[in-house]
Amino acid sequence: MSQHDRTHHAKIATGKGDPQCFKGTAGPPKFKVGERVRIRNLPDIFYTRCQVYTRGAIGEVAVVTHESPAPEDEAWGHVDKSEWFYIVRFRQKDLWPEYPDAFAKDTLQTEFSERWLEKV
Amino acid sequence: MAAPKLEAPLDDLIAAGAKWTPVPLLEEIKDHGRAWEDLAAQYGVTNPDPPWKTSLDGMCEALAAGSCSSVAAVEKEWLEGASDRAHLPGAPALPLLERRWEEDELSATLYQDVPFPERQLLALAHSLIKRGLIDERGLAQKVQEVRERLSAT
Amino acid sequence: MPHDDHGHGHGHNPPAPMVDEISDFEALEIAVRELAIAKGLFTAEDHRKFTEFAEHIGPTPAARMVAKAWLDPEYKKLCLTDAIKASLAVGVNWLNPTGFGTPSDYTDLRVLEDTPTLHHVVVCTLCSCYPRPILGFQPEWYRTPNYRRRLVRWPRQVIAEFGLVLPPEVEIRVEDSNQKCRFIVMPMRPKGTEGWTEDQLTEIVTRDCLIGVALPRPGVTTNLKMPVHRAAKPAHH
What we know:
With 120 residues, chain A is an alpha+beta fold. Chain A has helices spanning 3-13, 71-74, 92-95; strands at residues 36-39, 58-68, 83-91, 107-113, 117-119.
């Protein structure tokens, strides 16, 4: 990440905030609220915020949150390509097989960039 | 070396164990320094945090500032053992996630018996020394100098 | 300097107690900071700016946001649709102190609304992401691997350790805050607070309630002091 990138970021984000400064840069979102998605098990890459416990699990899009460069790119200072982000809701039973049946209603939500999601 | 899994770095890195070498200066402070909870109790002060806590937080933030985001631009080099940041112009001095992960590891190992936020301070100093961003001897001198300055009447 | 020994007017209160001792930790904090500035790792100006930020943040604005929302359905709607904008009404501008936030705080706050059949609780399994501008610093337990790892998997067990036991009919929804969104929980207004003012309501919306490990109750205005446990070697997810 160069000094230039940092200055550039400060310039585009000042007065707007981050992720607001990336609004309108990702095109139309691929998934909509209520849609069932599977978390892709992408090959191990160096940096990600996608938690291991969700890999391969199926959930439902709860919120289409914002556009932003994915952390996998942003970590290297690449902020020219944005993606949509989604909060996905899982049933706890689908994440942890041993989760007690008595609490089958319990859920967990976490957020992903679009590259991590595929249609079910 | 195999790259540790970053999604759960603690398991791998704590398992690595030996990675954390005690720093004599920090061991000395750990063993003989008086933590705020003791001082506050002795002097009847009710503030739960020591007066230097916000400055410590300001320092952590300032070290991470300048990055495009809170994620690290330099984690790869660090994890691969090439910790020389001189080749990475513009990188934040100590990115947030790195500091937090190292603090987690150090809190579970070398500084496990130190209360918070003293532990956070020791971990920060440790991370900076480990990277060669500040050196132990220079820091020892500076601590001594600060102590004399503050005790001057 | 003693100035009230003749009892003439001012100084009815004894001076607040002070710690009259320089600890090694205090000296270390100053030494690290001065060296870091001398080496150009950051500027004194940046440090001042972020320290001032650290001195000003706390949980009260988030508590007030919830209290206001309980009293004003229009404001509640704003909280649920644009919490960054709603924050301005409780004195928080998320763009401070740099004009675009801080390195640790993005500017997308989401308010999670509890209902009679749904209870939210927040965690960051990655590090300790937290809505600091409106909620202050994380309590120590929130930063520990112990809480972070166990909450996603055994949420009922963990919140029970805070004294919060909910029946199976109530869905517990864990929010793992791992990207740019930050979250606070908006609990339901408890019984026994009819006719209360915004100030009174603000007092019972504690930090723990806003994370989701407690529910507001009349008369309870403090957080639980949790012992911090070391992480036992957990199962690898």
